[in-house]
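JOB MANIFEST
job_type = single_chain_structure
chain_count = 1
residues = 328
[input]
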Amino acid sequence: MVGTCNVNAGEEDKIVQKAIELEDTEQASILFGSHDKHLRLIRSSLGVQISARNGLLRIEGKEAQVKKAVDVFGRLIEIVRSHGALEARVVEEVINAVETGRPSVSAKGPLEVSIKGVSARPKTEGQAGYVEAIAANDLVFCIGPAGTGKTYLAVAMALSALKMGVLKRIVLARPAIEAGEKLGYLPGDIQAKVNPFLKPLYDALEDMMEPVQVRKYIENEIIEILPLAFMRGRTLNEAFIILDEAQNCTVRQMKTFLTRLGVRGKVVVTGDITQVDLPPGEPSGLIDVQQRLKGVKGVDFVYLTLKDIVRHRLVQDIVEAYDPHEEA
């Protein structure tokens, strides 16, 4: 319940006060944070005065900022109701969402994966839709530019499914295609030759698990990381399968890969159709499959955009700068 009264009726930078009624002391305690750290964060970010007394939260300041603060508290209260907890970084995400005028995604809840002690969560609305699509479908294609978290979130969802016992193993695959340069003959056995192509998948895993644990899972074949060519002839039951850099699959390779899906399995295919490294004249399986499987029940296509880039702030500008030239 929110009440309003004007303190200063000036037309410009009008000062207003609003009150929010809290449900109980437990909700207030979670909402305020330890030693009121959440209140201090909101106060300093939005430039408003906040006080709490007798179950009422009072916000005072410039009208536009008070309105944002009310929106922030409204979203945070919903998160507290649904999760019974509130982290400072969630408060930061909600403040940022309100400031930028977009929906917050924190209320959708964290993924049940501990990344070096921190739960994974989508950071944009597009990423939230991607996570929801994976949860709701057995086959999901995610297409978008570099830095949008396509592989990262797929790996997080796979580890979440493994942790909860929904699926028994994870298979990560990638085409062994050179990105615009010929590397020549690589030394070593077959594993040594393909490891450079698979390194990004190892990196994604090691962002979320300790290297020792990654090695243990691989040794016990709970996690497999392999080139796409090694998928032929296999049927993978109760497995979460991720195909990364799928824009570099041929049409035939895509068909071969998709038919590996076994009983109680889930497949996520990720790629960037603006970065195809196949020989000239060879169609990309990721571009082709969009028409072939369009409208098939249980299959979903998610398209991430520049707004979903979560790497260094310059990545979005770099992608945007190159896109017009690539289209031309």
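[summary]
The chain has eleven helices and twelve strands.
Confidence is low (pLDDT under 50) at residues 4-9, 178-184.
exit_status = 0
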